[in-house]
Automatic annotation (TrEMBL):
Protein name: Spectrin beta chain, non-erythrocytic 4-like
GO CC aspect terms: cytoplasm; organelle
Encoding gene (name): LOC116530822
Molecular function as annotated in GO: actin binding
Pfam family for this entry, one: Spectrin
SMART domains listed in its UniProt record: CH, SPEC
Domain Calponin-homology (CH) positions: 118-223
UniProt cross-references to InterPro entries, sorted A to Z: CH_dom, CH_dom_sf, Spectrin/alpha-actinin, Spectrin_repeat
Lineage of source species: Eukaryota, Metazoa, Chordata, Craniata, Vertebrata
Alphabetical list of Gene3D superfamilies matching this protein: 1.20.58.60, Calponin-like domain (1.10.418.10)
Coiled coil: 402-436
Domain of life: Eukaryota
Keywords for the protein's UniProt record, in alphabetical order: Actin-binding, Coiled coil, Repeat
């Protein structure tokens, strides 16, 4: 047995090759529909295709309509009965055996217990038992009697198609009905040929092989139904995968675009760093941002993950189907989404950080504001209370009370002073809020100003109260002091009433000293009294607040002033008495002492002077002894001065006392002033002689000291001049520059000292003349004159020698300096000359840069050295012009240095030129290599770019920008190569080679760019074609689904049929409009095949795809025609059903009228009933016409081959049976009309 599947109508052709020749069975869904023998009939059967399926086995005109029984009878030469069905008894045994064996030879079932493979018959029996297991009253043990009641056939159908049979309504006693129902259901709904009749089975001994043959058709149908269902599922799965992939791609692009738009919109929103200037506003913004992060963003993140899953699913499905992988359009790829998501997360991080910082700032501001409000409330309360407190002036009228009030006020002030920091804290808080930009800063500023105003008011009140309190306290203290002073003055007046004046000087001094103490106290207290009075009077002159009545103050001041005046008057009288007594006794004692001291000093001066010129100096032999005698004489003069003032004062007092005469003080012992004037005159004469002797001795000592001092100074000057002459006349001028410089520095110091002594030496004669004029030409003066002349001569010699040595040292220093500079310069020149001569010009650019850096440092050193060479030349010029004895040697050294300097300069310039050449060439070669590398990378990038249109377009745009940037640089390099080759001929070959290589790479890049442009154009054309082709294929699939052919849903009402016909006509219009697109796509595909043979997808060439496209287009047209035919037939059938329903409604009304009529009881009622019956008969004749119309419509449906013809015929039959009294054996109500199936069989 061989099986083939028809690709047009999906029929299964099973060929049986046996002894009896070829026989073809066309099987649809597992049921045998046609058996044809012979080659020509088989060909006709295979060529009928869908025509056979649409018209059924008995209507197809292209093949012979036979049954398997007829086929078998024909091959066995057995006559077939009319009607196409042969009875089992008419079959010959060989024919039956052959057909049964050919039908069941493939049935093999393995049992579950022993896994034994049974024979075909046993396997079929076991299959039937397995399928009917569990059904009541169904027990299949054989293929004869177990099938007589028909329940087994219905059980098999119900097992596989429970929608066709209601098994619960079947009974075992109604065998014919069960068999008829099973056979009709199998024929109408399963397409199985009706090989048996109920009479063939419901008998004593049914034919086993006939039942086996019919049961085998059930087996094959259900087996093929399962296989075809699996195949259909596979094909549908493939189509569903294609459609699903398309939908997923559309869904991906839509979701990607939405997600990217949302990301850009969200980034724009959260990038705004403007925040609300309040805590609630920032909290709301943070809550919104948190809600976004916890609600909106997770959804979008899940969408992003879903997008990745979608893309992976699409790629996996395309890869599984061996189709071209999906490339998202530019800007919608996963990498673009990840990049945008990264920007979003960055913006979120910045937004969150800014929001957190702003929230912290606002929270701090809010806490500051709360602290400010709390402190303002506390400060205002405290200020109000203290203002009320300091406004009260209950100080009291006594000093203790005022002091207590003062202490209380000081406590208040201390409290207020301590509170100042808190008030300033309020101002600082307000300033901090203002600096941070607090939103309610106006209110804060107003409260701060209010607190500051109240604070200023409080401090003013406190100050004013303290002023008043201090005034009261000061006034009370003044009053208290006044009381103390009055008491003290009364005590002092009692002491001043004593009359004792003393009997000698000591006692008089003691009394006077005690009285002086009293007067000091009185004077001090009088100042204090005056101060108290003035202070008290100031309180009486105050404007405004007055701590006391001014009259009371004036009365107290007058009282204290009177007491003080009385006390002072008593003290003055007492002092006058005591002083008069002391003056008398003191005068007498002083005169006596002065006269005695004058006699002693006069004898001493006469003994020290001796008299004559020899003792003029009085023992002054040198400067030290003269100084000692002068110091002793100054002491004596000091004593003379002190005694002189005392003596004169005593003399005046004596004269006053003598002039006054009489007694000293009232009530004292009387004392006469006898001999007071003689004693005073004697003391005066004695003192005059003493002063004359002291003056003579002082003059002689001064002259001796001046001469001795001049001699000592002259000796020191001579010693210094001798030392200076020895230094100036030294022959050491140094052995090098350092020693010469040191000697010159020492000589400059010596010259300065000589010049400093010029003035003193020239003034020696004048000084000696002034000193020796008064003493005459003594031996000391003559010796001094000789020494002055010696000093002048020695000073002239020192000056001359110092000038000569200065010039010699200057010349030596210049020569040594010049030689040192020349030596240092020649050392440096020799070192650099050796390096330059041994230096090899490097070849690599790195070495050239290193050497160039060394040349830069060499330039700096040469600039410094050139200055030193110029200094040497200038020094030599000065020495030559000055007539230096070594001028020839100096000039030769200069010439040698200049020649070496010129050589090193020329050598440096030569090496620089060589380095510059190498550097220019190497830089040019390096830049050429860099540009060549860039050009090569661009060319390779273009050549290795993917062939996708988007990638090529992106690569081409980047290449054009790169070409625009590189082209000027390439032209400049070529021009620079020509110039360098002309300038440096030795490097010309290398430069030309680099230029040629760069030109070759540039040409290759231009060719690659041109090829890329052509590929972009071709890819664009192909992309547009593929886009149009995909769109057309999508539409074609949707159109085929909409067309649906004859398998689409059929209408259940006339209105639905009209709507489906209108929708089908609109589809036809759309197909006609798409015909031009189809032609354009075919023409474009032929052009692409003629140009480059591009492929639509992996493994499927364009030339292989076009036949499928053409087949799909023609299939769409065929489906539309088939669907139109089915809809037209369904519309006609719905019209028939409408008429049939009307006829049934009329019959139902007539039946109700007949069943509800009662026999009349009177003549009138009988006549009325007869009249109504005649009217009823008339109505029946009219309804008979409607029924006739329905019958004719059913016959027309059968004649036209309508798919609903058999149903219409059956419905008409039932309608006619309703008109005729139904047979008692009828099991179904004749008025039930069959429902229109939703899909064709």
């Amino acid at each position: 047995m061989q099986a083939r599947v028809c690709r047009v109508c999906d029929t299964v052709a099973v060929t049986l090759g046996a002894i009896y020749g070829p026989m073809t069975l066309l099987v649809i869904a597992g049921s045998v529909r046609l058996c044809v023998t012979g080659g020509s009939d088989g060909a006709r059967a295979r060529g009928c295709g869908g025509e056979f399926l649409r018209r059924g086995p008995r209507e197809c005109g292209s093949v012979a309509s036979v049954t398997p029984w007829e086929c078998a009878a024909r091959d066995a030469a057995v006559p077939v009965q009319p009607g196409g069905v042969s009875k089992p008894q008419a079959l010959q045994a060989p024919v039956a055996n052959f057909f049964v064996s050919s039908q069941i030879q493939v049935i093999k079932i393995e049992t579950e217990d022993n896994r034994e493979t049974r024979s075909a018959k046993d396997a079929l029996l076991l299959w039937c038992q397995m399928k009917t297991a569990g059904y009541p009253e169904v027990n299949i043990q054989n293929f004869t009697t177990s099938w007589r009641d028909g329940l087994a056939f219905n059980a098999l159908i119900h097992r596989h198609r429970p929608d066709l049979v209601d098994f619960s309504k079947l009974t075992k006693s109604n065998a014919n009905y069960n068999l008829q129902r099973a056979f009709r259901t199998a024929e109408q709904h399963l397409g199985l040929a009706r090989l048996l009749d109920p009479e063939d089975v419901n008998m004593e001994a049914p034919d086993e092989k006939s039942i086996i043959t019919y049961v085998v058709s059930f087996y094959h149908y259900f087996s093929k139904m399962k296989a075809l269902a699996v195949e259909g599922k596979r094909i549908g799965k493939v189509l569903d995968q294609v459609l699903e992939v398309g939908k997923i791609i559309e869904r991906y692009e839509e979701l990607a675009a939405e997600l990217l738009a949302w990301i850009r919109r969200t980034v724009g929103l959260i990038s705004n760093q403007k925040f609300a200037n309040s805590l609630s506003g920032v909290q709301q913004q943070l809550q919104a941002f948190t809600a976004y992060c916890t609600l909106e963003k997770p959804v979008k993140f899940q969408e992003k993950g879903n997008l990745e899953v979608l893309l992976f699913s699409v790629q996996s499905k395309l890869r599984a189907c061996n189709r071209r992988l999906f490339v998202p359009r530019e800007g919608c790829g996963i990498w673009d989404i990840d990049k945008a998501w990264g920007e979003l997360e960055k913006a979120e991080h910045e937004r969150e950080a800014a929001l957190r910082a702003e929230l912290i700032r606002q929270e701090k501001l809010e806490l500051l504001a709360q602290r400010f409000d709390h402190k303002v409330a506390m400060r205002e309360s405290w200020l109000n209370e203290n203002q009320r407190l300091v406004s009260q002036d209950n100080f009291g009228y006594e000093l203790p009370a005022v002091e207590a009030a003062m202490k209380k006020h000081e406590a208040i002030e201390a409290d207020i002073a301590a509170y100042e920091e808190r008030v300033q804290g309020v101002a600082e808080l307000a300033q901090a809020l203002a600096a941070e930009g607090y939103y309610d800063i106006r209110r804060v500023a107003a409260q701060r100003d209010s607190v500051l105003r109240q604070w200023a008011l409080l401090t003013g009140l406190v100050g004013a109260r303290r002023t008043r309190l201090e005034q009261n306290l000061a006034l009370q203290k003044v009053f208290q002091e006044m009381v103390y002073m009055v008491d003290w003055m009364e005590e002092m007046q009692a002491q001043l009433l004593s009359r004792e004046c003393g009997q000698h000087l000591v006692e008089a001094d003691d009394l006077l000293q005690k009285h002086g103490l009293l007067e000091g106290d009185i004077a001090a207290q009088s100042e204090r009294v005056e101060g108290l009075n003035a202070a008290a009077l100031r309180f009486s002159q105050l404007q405004g607040y007055q701590p006391c009545d001014p009259q009371v103050i004036c009365n107290r001041v007058n009282h204290v002033h009177g007491c003080l005046a009385e006390l002072q008057e008593q003290a003055a009288r007492r002092r006058a008495e005591l002083e008069a007594s002391r003056s008398l006794w003191a005068l007498l004692q002083e005169l006596e002492e002065a006269e005695s001291w004058a006699r002693d000093k006069e004898r001493l001066l006469e003994a020290a002077g001796g008299g004559g010129a020899a003792g003029a100096a009085g023992g002054a032999h040198d400067l030290s002894s003269t100084a000692r005698l002068l110091a002793q004489h100054k002491i004596l003069q000091g004593e003379l001065g002190g005694r002189r003032a005392l003596l004169q004062q005593a003399l005046r007092c004596g004269e006053e006392l003598a002039a006054a005469g009489g007694a000293v003080g009232p009530g004292a012992e009387t004392m006469q002033l006898v001999g007071l004037a003689e004693r005073a005159a004697s003391a005066r004469r004695r003192w005059q002689r003493l002063e004359e002797a002291a003056a003579r001795r002082e003059r002689r000592l001064q002259e001796a000291r001046a001469l001795h001092q001049f001699g000592a100074d002259l000796d020191g000057l001579l010693d210094w001049l001798r030392d200076a002459y020895r230094l100036a006349a030294a022959g050491d001028f140094g052995h090098d520059e350092a020693s010469s410089r040191r000697l010159a520095r020492q000589h400059r110091a010596l010259t300065g000292e000589v010049e400093a002594h010029r003035g003193p030496v020239s003034g020696l004669r004048r000084q000696l003349a002034s000193l020796g004029g008064a003493s005459g030409a003594g031996p000391l003066v003559v010796a001094l004159q000789v020494r002055v002349v010696e000093a002048e001569q020695l000073f002239a010699e020192v000056t001359e020698v110092a000038a000569l040595r200065r010039q010699w040292l200057r010349d030596a220093l210049a020569v040594y300096r010049m030689f040192g500079e020349v030596h240092a310069c020649e050392l440096w020149i020799g070192e650099k000359e050796q390096w330059l001569l041994s230096m090899r010009v490097p070849d690599s650019l790195d070495d050239v840069e290193v050497v160039q850096h060394r040349f830069e440092s060499l330039d700096q050193e040469m600039n410094s050295l050139m200055g030193r060479v110029l200094d040497v030349n200038q020094t030599v010029q000065e020495l030559v012009e000055g007539g230096h004895p070594s001028s020839d040697e100096v000039r030769s050294c200069q010439d040698h240095l200049n020649s070496r300097w010129n050589r090193i300069v020329e050598l440096v310039e030569q090496r620089k030129e060589e380095m510059s050449a190498v550097l220019l060439v190497e830089n040019h070669v390096l830049e050429v290599a860099e540009v060549r590398t860039q050009v090569r990378e661009k060319r390779r990038a273009v050549e290795s770019a993917p062939r996708a249109c988007g990638a090529l377009q992106w690569r081409l745009s980047g290449l054009e920008a790169a070409l625009q940037a590189l082209e000027p640089r390439q032209a400049a390099l070529l021009e620079e190569a020509a110039l360098l080759a002309a300038r440096f001929p030795t490097q010309a070959a290398r430069l030309h080679q680099g230029a040629e290589e760069l030109g070759a790479e540039w040409g290759a890049l231009a060719s690659a760019a041109q090829a890329c442009g052509e590929a972009v154009a071709a890819a664009g054309r192909l992309q547009r074609f593929l886009h149009d082709l995909d769109a057309f294929l999508d539409w074609l699939v949707r159109a085929q689904e909409a067309a649906g052919g004859s398998e689409g849903p059929l209408p259940n009402s006339l209105e639905e049929a009209d709507a489906l016909l209108a929708r089908h006509a609109a589809l036809k219009e759309e197909v006609d409009q798409r015909e031009e697109d189809y032609a354009r796509i075919v023409a474009a595909s032929e052009a692409l095949l003629a140009s480059d043979g591009a492929e639509l997808g992996p493994g499927l060439a364009l030339d292989e795809w076009l036949p499928h496209l053409e087949l799909g287009w023609h299939k769409l047209l065929g489906l539309w025609e088939a669907r139109r035919e089915a809809l037209v037939q369904a519309h006609i059938y719905q019209l028939f059903l409408r008429d049939l329903r009307q006829a049934l409604a009329v019959l139902r009304n007539q039946e109700m009228a007949l069943s509800g009529a009662e026999l009349p009881g009177t003549v009138e009622s009988v006549e009325e009933a007869l009249k109504q019956h005649r009217d009823f008969l008339t109505t029946m004749e009219l309804s008979q016409q409607k029924m006739q119309v329905a019958v004719q419509a059913a016959e027309g449906l059968l004649r036209q081959g309508n798919i609903y013809g058999a149903q219409a015929q059956e419905a008409v039959t039932r309608l006619l049976e309703k008109c005729i009294p139904p047979h008692p054996c009828c099991l179904h109500p004749p008025w039930e009309l069959p429902e229109l199936p939703r899909s064709s069989s």
